[in-house]
Batch of 3 targets.
Target 1
Amino acid sequence: MLLRGKRALVMGVANHRSIGWSVATALHREGAELAFTYRRDRSKENLFKLLDRIGGASRFLTFPCDVSEDAQVEAAFTGLGAQWDRLDIVIHSIANAERSDLTGSFTGISRTGFGHALGTSAYSLISVTRRATPMLEAAGGGSIIAMTYDAVRKVVPGYNVMAVAKAALETEVRYLAAELGPLHIRVNAISAGPIRTRSSRAIRGISKLRSVAETVSPLRTNATQDDVSAAAVFLSSDLSRAVTGNIIFVDGGLHLVGTPVGPPSA
């Protein structure tokens, strides 16, 4: 029960395969008290069905929050603050882009699509952090965790505009960590391998990426949602009290590998 007595806000649960949901169940298992946000009515229905698996929606705080709308972010944290006097953990598992800006050419990314992807997937971390900071400070500090993918340092076909958004997100992690460190608020991101989620289905060739990971990553394996949630538990707990501003790779070591030439000969 590494997180007993801690309160966590989880943002971005889509379905049972989503990283956000896996992290939420892991935090719950370790004793954290949970609150959730959802984007739309359909997201709410999906979330409530999932919450039935861990005791029912009535046991948890839930708030509508489309992070592209400042008023909704403000309202969500106002509602949360009315119920909780402090917050220990924020899980930012939010990303969205127009499919055409993922599957089309990079030069074909639209101005509108670029703004949408950056606003929803990257600026939202700043917006959420700004509003979460007073509640985290009231707890004497805490942990903010975002989710990224290793398409920032290398080209991943089909990631396109989301790669730019993740580059912005990772930069924000470092700047937020530097700014909030004096308040004992830690900010980190987890970079997962090519995990099968609803979002990853938009990446062209995701199955091939997973096959490559199993062949050439140092651990010869694909990371799973459970692997990511284990790292999130560590970053949420006091065990990570001196860890901030980091991109934690949970990918079997795939990020270390250059050209995927296959395993060495026996």
Note: The two ends are 44 Å apart (CA to CA).
Target 2
Amino acid sequence: MERVSVVVIGGGVVGCAVAAEAALRWRDVFVLEALPRPGLGASSRNSGVIHSGIYYPPGSLKARLCVEGNRLTYAFAAQHNVPHRRTGKLIVATQPEEIGELERLAENGRQNGLEGLELLDAAAVRQHEPHIAACAAIRVPSTGLVASEELVRAYARVAVERGAELVTGARVEALEPVAGAVRVRSTAGEVEARAVVNAAGLFADEVAALLGPRPWRIYPVRGEYCELVRERSDLVRGLVYPLPRHDGLSLGVHLTRTLWGAVLVGPTARYVADKNDYERDREPVEAFVRYARPLLPELRVEDLRPAYTGLRAKLAPPGQPGFRDFVIEADPQVPQVIHLIGIESPGLTAAPAIARHVAARLADVLD
């Protein structure tokens, strides 16, 4: 049986970024992607925002890897002609009693190393966003936008150019430790790998469980979007966020003017039972009006039409809110396997930093 250095399970943005980084050092890197092409899951069903790192607890993996990934994502997108734009964003307090919370969030961002944060009063917010209702806002200059699907394709292309093999339609069905390696059986065949990276996104817990009972479980959370009709798209100029939800489930329904000029309203956040449930029992347009009207009082039902949905890989179960950090660690019993579990937002931004972090772990296994 063929033995290779690295098998990456999952061809989303993180898996492809890991493969591109690993292929710089090891010649025989394989990516196994269950779907017909890379990035069809969470990697391309999101807001396409390059996050700053303002939200996450100082010292957490999310904070460190998002701040580093912000810089690396801009550099990668520029080098590989991926559409992107540094837009900045506003995080808005709609009530006077929220201003203290806004100031604490800004201080959190400074502790994470963000520069150039500005606290704006209501008049300054109106200069940026005339239709937004705000008592105050933080302007975050390092936030931006990237064409997420094209970003995934670019990481995949770079990985292949560096010698990696990308195999689609390859759903992993078994992992078996053998002497000095792990036998990986997928619908595309079998291979032995000296190291395995589990970057399977929503299904990373199930991949980990192929080695036996493991402590992680992913709870899918669906996010739904609406879009402003074209005639009303001038209501929003850039990126406008509320203060994040206290339950840690999401950053709240926000307004995103995309690279192509459409304005998205969303995402919502709701636990679902099925990791493939993108459409069942969608929220009505009227709900989006309720969610977004505190930010955009002029919004009407007729201004919106349904858009796409996405699923997030949450580690927090229903009824147990709170921050959960990325899990990036070796398997407790099979150290040749590195698990990436709960890689939700800001995973798109953090992907190149995660890739460097994982490459260092791979070196401990392979060198």
Note: Helices lie at 13-22, 61-79, 99-111, 122-128, 148-161, 204-209, 285-292, 347-366.
Target 3
Amino acid sequence: MKRVILLFFGLIFFLGCHEAVNTSNPTDSNQNEWINDTQGPPQERKWTFIVYMAADNDLESAAIANFNELEAVRYGNAPISILVLLDRSPYYDRTNGDWSDTRLFEIKSDPGGLTGTMVSSRLDCPELGLTRDTETELNTSDPLVLSRLIDFAKRAYPAENYALFIWGHGTGWRSRPTQNEQTRAIAFDDTHEQFMSLPAFGRAVSGKGLSVIGFDTCYAAVLEVVYEIKNDARLFIGSQGAILSSGWDYYTLFSDFIKKPNLTISDLGNSVQYQFMRRYGSLNNASISQIELSRVETLFIKFENFTGLLSETITDFNSRNMILGEILQNVESHYFTSFPSDMFIDISDFSKKMIKLLPDFQEDMELQNKIIMAADELNDALAYAVPSSWARNGTEMKIGVHFIPMHGVAVPAAMHELAYVRGSIAMDKSSFVENSRHWVPNAIPQERSFLDKVFYTVYN
């Protein structure tokens, strides 16, 4: 889900998912150098931002809070436009007219700051059948809604760069609808009882010419997600674990960003990371990563090589149990404490712990050396693909990968879901699952699949 902090605090924040927390002062004039309240003309627009607020669920109040954070910024003549598609719920928030349909807005500054009242301009959007004066309920889990919104933004608000922020619940790799709320992917729409799968999201953003894709959700900075969209933007920004229900601090983000003279892609990435560090600086296990998507393919190849070699060391129950125990007990991991829950492990920490453990059960020095070299190459690829990240625990290169669903602390499920099994009958599997040879499990277990060797190989 979106916005629950990890492990020890996970259940507490999950139950309070997305109560807004403001850590900045929107009346502080030093935060912003712009003095006017009108935005730059279209011919000078450097950025168009698309915020996809899928809030037809229990995050509705948080959506209103984040919307107000966007309005509290004094944009002045900053050459940017921010569009927000907001889908509300009938149940969780009664403010601002208590409407419950789907509406598109262009963000305008609220002179009063965080007033709690939405003041931005409502827009017509022919691509989505939206008008300013009618109520229209859209299914925001439908990838066509997202795709057509991007088309509208590019047509009506042309800019040098386009950024898409996915806002809402998120659970990482998920590919197919299930009844379990914690096994859905992104854009939960309670009215339509659906969500958007990872492959569907990939199709929605494919070929759209985006510069930045940011996920203001839980479990986004994982290899399965960035591999799906590796060709669809230059920079990805997200967290590998759970985050608070309040999500990002949009006031600090945009107040910081518009002060920068060039408004580059790296400027935006740094502003997102800065606001996250301010909001989450005191919360254990919080992290955020900037990931260069053009470098994800190399990272995927190096990860596959390392895990394929590592799988060769698992030859009996002893080696298998030592590796599984190390992962479950000592490798940095992220999951909800409301079970069942997917478990994601930090790739960098996983490689380091495996190298440290290797001499305890593997005597083949030639194989050991190959694995050590592969680990070095993997960590070089991590440094290359994740040039900047912040973590409360001080570690770097924060990107995770799915391990297995958990039924309790250190209690893995009996099997992976079919959508994560290569060659299974599940439809619409993610690109990562389709292309992985040495990590994901297979319908017929393979000798060099790490998860096959850990969970499905029968040892004599």
Note: The chain has 13 helices and 15 strands.
